[in-house]
Amino acid sequence: xxxxxxxxxxxxxxxxxxxxxxxxxxxxxxxxxxxxxxxxxxxxxxxxxxxxxxxxxxxxxxxxxxxxxxxxxxxxxxxxxxxxxxxxxxxxxxxxxxxxxxxxxxxxxxxxxxxxxxxxxxxxxxxxxxxxxxxxxxxxxxxxxxxxxxxxxxxxxxxxxxxxxxxxxxxxxxxxxxxxxxxxxxxxxxxxxxxxxxxxxxxxxxxxxxxxxxxxxxxxxxxxxxxxxxxxxxxxxxxxxxxxxxxxxxxxxxxxxxxxxxxxxxxxxxxxxxxxxxxxxxxxxxxxxxxxxxxxxxxxxxxxx
Length: 305
What we know:
With 305 residues, the protein is α/β, with parallel strands linked by helices. 60% of the residues lie in helices and 9% in strands.
């Protein structure tokens, strides 16, 4: 009964979930049904691969009792029940784990977890760095007419916005959007001197894939910071690989993948800054002067981030 005790009376899963329904109805079930539910909830992963005979043996009931239980849960039979159970478990397993039920709650524990996650993301991004890809990406951006920075969702959209923030300071015509409609329109009206810098942890958002395909047809170049082998990676002219982490264990924490994305963006921005220094130094000087007029003189006033 270990797993059920860990999950307690949590209502983490939606009411339509088969797992949650079993937990909610358990106290009112008849003896045989309760025995079957207990056997299933004890190890849901194993239950999705078990036969009627195996479940009946663990529950101490007859095989017809197991089939009746499946039908009581709204399924056509035990095979249908296992399919639905597997679907529910695939979506909800992270919410059923002990890590979800007992997350870090103290400042010390949280700081340790976040530091570890950040360090892992940066170490991974550094280990899989591709200097040649960074050079090719910098070549494309440096020679571009316009740079469009795309991302969708949480971290990738924010990193795309940060890319605009880094690049416009280098006197590059950079703009960012996370709007799927605007992404498609921008891609459809692109030209051969335009570059699209796309960020995605999964490499699977439709708007990015379709925009990349459309922009390439218009002669633009695609730089993708994403997982190798994904649909977006396949569309890219230059792939800067970034391995996606399994976020299920600590899903309640901010996505650590963004640290890897920011590492790559910082590498690109630094590389471009070095290449364009003669061109932009006087403009950055003017920018610092403007900031000094606004906020007063400060040796620590940043202009490059």
